[in-house]
Structures are given as C-alpha cells and as structure tokens.
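Hey all, quick one. A colleague (J.T.) asked me to put the adenosine-5'-triphosphate job into the tracker so the inputs and the structure tokens live in one place instead of scattered across chat threads. No bug as far as I know, just bookkeeping. Sequence used:
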Amino acid sequence: MTTDYKIKVQNVTKEFDLFKTRSDQLKAFFSLSNQEIPEFWALKGISLEVAPGETLGLIGVNGSGKSTLSNIISGVIPQTTGVVDVRGDTSIVAINSGLRGQLTGLENIRLKALMMGMTNKEIDDMLDDIIAFADIGDFVYQPVKSYSSGMKSRLGFSIAVHINPDILIIDEALSVGDDTFYQKCVERIQEFKDAGKTIIFVSHSLKQIELMCDRVAWIQYGDLKQIGPTKEVVKEYRAFIKWFKALPKKDKKKYQNDAKERQKAFKIDDFEKQVVEQRQAEEPNNQQVARDVHKEFYSGVISETMSWGNRILTAVVAVAVILLMLINISGHSLTSVVQQPSLIFQPTTSVTTNSKR
Ligand SMILES: Nc1ncnc2c1ncn2[C@@H]1O[C@H](COP(=O)(O)OP(=O)(O)OP(=O)(O)O)[C@@H](O)[C@H]1O
C-alpha cells in the first residue's frame, strides 16, 4: 500500500446483528441475554486505497456491500474492524441518506452546510445557487418526507456539490433523476474531477461507471473480488453477469444463498489469524506482527456494545436517579434521608381535606 492516498481502507469488516425484535437488541446492548444473536457480515475484510484526484467506481450485485462500504468511508456508520483513513471532508449523496425527513429542504441545506463547518453568511451566499441547481420549486419550503426520490436526489446532490467537499461519494443518486438533471450532474462531477477532487461513485449503470471512473472495485457479497482499471474490471463483471443470468432459476438462488451463508458463518478471529499469517510470510523477521494486526483491527473502532465500566456507571446513575425521585416524592430533604433512610417510605405530604363543607 502507498502513503499517498486520499482514502485507505484496510481489512475492513462490517457485522450486522440480525435481531428479531427491538427488545432482543436492547438486551444485547446491556448484555442481559446469553442468547446467540445471528450475525451477518456485510463486509468480510476489504482493503483498498483511493488516490487523490481519482474517481473510484463501486460495482456489484444487489446486497454485495457497496452502500455499506461508502457509508463507512463517509462516516455515516462505523466499521466493525479495520482501518479507515480518510484525509479530508467527505460529502455523501445517496437516495436514502443525508436528508432529514422532518426538516424542510431549506433547513436541510443549512443543517448540512453547518455540519461541514460553514458560517451562516457563507450559507446565505450560496443558498440561491443550491436551490437553482436542485430545481425543485416551492418544494424547498416543504418537509423532505413529502419529496419523491428524484427530488431528494436533486436536493442531496445540489447540497453535496455546493459545499465543496474534498471527497464526494455518490451512491446511486443519479439513477432516480431525469435525463436533464442527470446531464447537469455529470457536468458537475466532471468539474469536480477537473478540480482534482476525489470521488467514489456507486452505480449499477456500467455505462455511467465507464464514463466517470478511473478505476473500479467490484464488491461481491462482502469481498473485494477485483480492483483495477475501469475497462478490465467492467469486462470481467459483465462476463459474470452474463454467466449468472444464464443460470437456471434454482441455481441462481443456490448461488445467492450459499454466498449469504458464508457471510453468516464468517469468523472474525479466523480472518485475523489469516491476516497475521499473510503478514508473517511477508515480514518473517517482524516479531510484532500479531500485535500490530490486532491493533489495526480494533484501535480505530467504536464498540457497539457497552464496556463493563460503562455498564456499571449506567447502573449507578440509574439507581441514583431513582433514589432522588423517591426522595423528592417523599417530601423529606436529602440530608434527613441520608441520616434516616427509612424516611423515604414515610411521605410528609398529607392529603388536605376541605373542612368548609
Ligand atoms: N442495518 C442492517 N442490518 C442488517 N443487514 C443489513 C443492514 N444494512 C445492510 N444490510 C445487509 O448488508 C448487505 C449489504 O448491503 P448494502 O446495502 O451495502 O448492499 P449494496 O451493494 O449497496 O446493495 P444495492 O445494490 O441493492 O444497493 C445486504 O445483505 C443487506 O441486507
């Protein structure tokens, strides 16, 4: 791997717990249940780099992990393990992400721009341009939840290109617009490329991929199947799609089911061992390989379950809040309850009766 990259993703995995109910999810968060939660590994160890000024395409069949990877790179969701090093601000345009449904278009513009560190004055200065590019008329004053997917995509794209990020991530956002809008977007993306910006472009349209991308990564059920020059990877992918489409229906289903089963059966510890073995073969004199790999796997990762320390702290805070509530209801002061705890069960307040009947 080189040091001159804009984005580096190394041994990145993403596990989703397949909870059946919301209460199972809560129990697992607080680790109150020993019940095994079925795991699903949407990414099984992806490593790739994107060079400054490069446009990298992400292709793959439905459910292969393209959006998961682009959401991890843009910081929308955390990875389960691995290194994600992004050198610069990212802005993601996706059909279903980035815009808050309850807020109007105008409020969404301001929110996103403020989150990117812009001042209100800077936002006011570019507001007209964003609205003009999105071209959604008076809908800009309406909550985004009332928008069609094409309108969301127009607004999302317009915001993303005007806030001028270092890295633009476009996840299928061009597939829902009309031809005129698509053309406008293509021109804007070209301007971004000419300005030396880095772009990740996710699409099912191989024509769009061929038009925009310098290199392409083909993601296949959580694995990086191939990465390389656009022409080569698209050629291989087209051949795969042709082969897949020619399969009888039941073989297609089996192929998909087998891949999903492998994603459920994936074991992160086995993957870590495999990476250690590979690294040891490359660096036979390095005694620290296992430690280094473990650090790379877990040091940049935010735990999605509570640590023991946090669990104890949460329990202490919860007990303290309940006690304070009970003291408040009892009507005694904190000092008197501390001196005589049984007072908590002897409320001072008495029901006043009306004697003037
Ligand atoms: N929050 C989640 N919980 C459980 N599974 C999820 C979650 N998000 C995604 N997945 C699963 O992860 C896998 C990868 O999904 P992802 O959306 O990244 O695929 P994709 O390649 O972008 O697909 P598409 O081309 O259909 O948009 C899919 O099997 C999906 O069902």
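Adding what we noticed when we looked at it: Residues 16, 40, 42, 60, 62-68 surround adenosine-5'-triphosphate (CB under 6 Å). The beta strands are 7-17, 39-50, 55-59, 81-86, 90-94, 167-171, 198-202, 215-220, 223-229.
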